[in-house]
Design brief:
The complex is a heterodimer.
Chain A: H1 6-13, H2 19-31, H3 33-43, H4 47-50, H5 63-70, H6 93-97, H7 101-116, H8 121-128, E1 136-138, E2 144-146, H9 148-156, E3 163-167, E4 170-182, E5 187-195, E6 201-208, E7 214-222, H10 241-250, E8 251-255, H11 258-266, H12 275-278
Chain B: H1 3-24, H2 27-43, H3 54-76, H4 84-90, H5 98-111, H6 115-126, H7 131-138, H8 142-175
Helix pairs in contact in B: 1-2, 1-3, 1-6, 2-3, 5-8, 6-8, 7-8
The chains are: A alpha+beta, B mainly alpha.
Chain lengths: 281, 179
């Protein structure tokens, strides 16, 4: 058990531990793949997952329910307050402890509205975690696609290893941070970019799509530059809450260890889902 | 009964609907449960004590009604009806999104958990209560909330992984690779 119970790992993910206890958990996480694997079960089933049920927070309450409360046996006035509250964002304590709670609920509502409108909701959410396009191109369909240099690093460089590239005429150190599998069968990687002469760094997450493009799901400025050489950066503790929030939304497995990552890379990032697209004719 | 309490109940409706949605996996059924909860709360409003949390009190009513329903459906041998309502409302059939598929997988997985585990998931992961608040609402020690929630989330994770791993196995068989 490495001295860390399931309950403690879960409390860490849920932000229920104090700083000292969190630090103890993190110290073990960095060194122990087994504990990271156990952590994954709690990361993917937390509040991020609960957001799937946020639709009632984003739409009007049906009138018959309001009537059921306001119209009343004992001395009901019948004067119904029809303006009943949608989109109440004053949610309980949990939200205040999490890094970007209001953002998350707002994004969930946006996402649901987008679904209702029949559009691609991921695009909406991506915009919120995308404030810098260095090394990234925009495709005809509006997707953010990693440019050749960034894509090359994501394709071949192990996590924790820095690769120096020349992008837009300037040197930049690009370092994949970690790799994970996403729902839908894609592989995704968090990365960091430190540009020559820039006093901030960038953090991003890219996912390899079925055509081999690395689609950038988010890329944001982080100040100050992220700490170097930490291969594992537990969710919620990283330098970018946005990137971690995107990761939380996407991830379907534990974060890969270096060996596992090397295996996936060697196999050419063969996808793990959607068999129809993978099957050879 | 004062209109003040009624107004406060109406303000709770979005959260109560979301909580019920997590339990039932279906918005129509969730609204039934919410309506019954409101009726029960209004008819026994005298039992609620001013100064205590109205939301906790209403959640307790809702969860008791949910237990009754689960027991009744078990006796009748029904299965839980998950989420067709969402699918129809959220999509025109052309574009089933990732989040909708996820919602179906998660709803199905929750419906297979024991009722006490469903409740901690709904309180903490969906409604966003702290462990302490969930313990107060459920009337159980915080340690019990934690162990129950940890087990529930491990089961949920296993069920979700089983859903996402299935296609991968198919691929391997078709390609004649690993069995």
């Amino acid at each position: 058990m490495n001295g860390i119970s399931d309950e403690m790992l879960m409390s860490y993910v849920d932000g229920e531990l104090d700083g000292a206890a969190s630090a103890r958990v993190e110290a073990v996480l960095v060194h122990t793949a087994d504990v990271r694997a156990r952590l994954a079960a709690f990361q993917v089933t937390g509040r991020a997952l609960g957001q799937l049920f946020d639709r009632p927070m984003c739409e009007p309450v049906p009138q018959h329910l309001i009537d059921a409360v306001m119209r009343a046996p004992p001395g009901g006035s019948g004067a119904v307050t029809a303006s009943a509250t949608i989109l109440r964002l004053d949610k309980p304590l949990r939200e205040q402890r999490h890094p970007s709670p209001r953002w998350m609920l707002a994004a969930a509502c946006l996402a649901l509205l987008a679904v209702a409108a029949g559009s691609r909701w991921i695009a909406n959410e991506t915009l919120r975690g995308f404030d810098n396009s260095y090394g990234v191109a925009t495709a005809a369909d509006g997707a953010h696609i990693a440019g050749a240099q960034l894509a090359a690093v994501l394709e071949t460089t192990p996590s924790g290893t820095v690769s120096v590239q020349t992008i837009d005429g300037a040197h930049a150190a690009v370092k994949p941070v970690l790799t994970f599998a996403a729902f839908g069968g894609r592989y995704c990687r968090q990365y960091e970019v430190t540009r020559e002469g820039a006093d901030n760094a960038l953090a991003g997450v890219g996912c390899r799509d079925v055509t081999g493009r690395w689609q950038v799901e988010g890329q944001v400025v982080v100040v100050p530059p992220p700490p170097s050489a930490s291969v594992i950066r537990p969710a919620g503790n990283g330098s970018s809450g946005e990137i971690d929030a995107i990761t939380d939304r996407l991830i379907s497995s534990e974060v890969f260890g270096l060996e596992e990552e090397a295996g996936v890379m060697k196999e050419g990032w063969q996808r793990t889902g959607t068999p129809a697209l993978d099957v050879q004719p | 009964m004062s209109d003040d309490i009624r107004n406060r109940m109406v303000e709770l409706l979005p959260r109560l609907r979301r909580f019920s949605y997590a339990l039932t996996g279906n918005l129509d059924e969730a609204d039934d449960l919410v309506q019954e909860t409101c009726a029960r709360a209004l008819s026994s409003a005298g039992q609620w004590q001013e100064g205590t949390r109205l939301d906790s009190w209403m959640y307790r009513i809702a969860q008791n009604l949910w237990f009754d329903r689960l027991r009744a459906s078990k006796v009748r041998g029904e299965s839980v009806n998950v989420d067709t309502a969402y699918e129809l409302a959220g999509s025109d059939g052309r574009d089933v999104t990732e989040s909708q598929l996820m919602l179906q997988v998660v709803s199905k997985s929750i419906s297979r958990l024991p009722a006490d585990q469903q409740l901690v998931i709904a309180h903490v992961c969906v409604d966003g209560l702290s462990y302490k608040e969930a313990a107060d609402t459920l009337g159980i020690p915080i340690g019990t909330v934690m162990s129950r929630l940890a087990r529930a989330r491990q089961s949920l994770h296993a069920a979700m992984m089983a859903e996402t791993v299935k296609p991968a196995r198919t691929v391997h068989v078709i390609k004649g690779g690993r069995p």
